[in-house]
Structure prediction request, 249 residues.
Amino acid sequence: MNLSLQLLLLLTLTVRTVRTHGYYVFRVDECLTSSSALTDVEFIRTEYFNKVPYARFNSTVGEFVGFTEYGVKTAEYYNRGDYVLRMRGELERYCKHNLPIFYSNILDKTVSPRVELKAEQQPRGAHMSMLMCSAYDFYPPAIDVYWQRDGKKVTTDVTATDELADGDWYYQVHSHLEYTPRSGEKISCVVEHASFSEPMVYDWDPSLPESERSKMAIGASGLVLGLILSAAGFIYYKKKSSGRILVPS
Ligand SMILES: *[C@@H]1O[C@H](CO)[C@@H](O)[C@H](O)[C@H]1NC(C)=O
Prediction:
């Protein structure tokens, strides 16, 4: 699976905010990891003045680094005192304690997508076809939706949306494929997601959809019924008229 498993961890905690005369100072703590095993956790504290970050402590570096002139001076000051010593303990105290709790409560939960594959209405006479593969109601948002033509990945004429948040923790995504149909080929939509143990392949069935088929069946029975009735009428008419001739007046 080549899912980019981004577990950016938002243990965002506003430890301190100071607001005076329109100036705004705050800091954000983050515990970041890129592995579900939580082996490479990093503690980051960033300090902001009026939304501009000016200094950051990174547990991998072990010191504060300043970004602005004021930030550089502040970082030097922090690095000389107790403050930096306290920050060096935050990875253990804050991240390694909280991350597994957040992780098992939310981040390792997966909900598999409901996938729908359908043809888009094309203008009359168009020789291109458009398919849409949609995945609904999945979590987490990292997903890979792509197309295959006879088992080979299609890279051209594909347009896809981002993962769109439904606002209820679930996400949806839509991918369009524009192609010229050839007989005997197989078009598939493939979905990879953390909730699946392997890529799921959805084959396009180019036969008519159910509603079209029932419309055709109704049309055909109407035609047959019409033919039977007109044949019956014709036979009846023939019988009547020939009977009239046979009877002498
Ligand atoms: C923290 O520092 C390490 C080592 O320089 C770096 O690889 C990593 O990207 C930094 N993390 C952040 C969030 O800046």
Notes: The two ends are 94 Å apart (CA to CA). Residues 210-246 form the longest helix (37 residues). Helices lie at 69-80, 82-88, 90-107, 210-246.
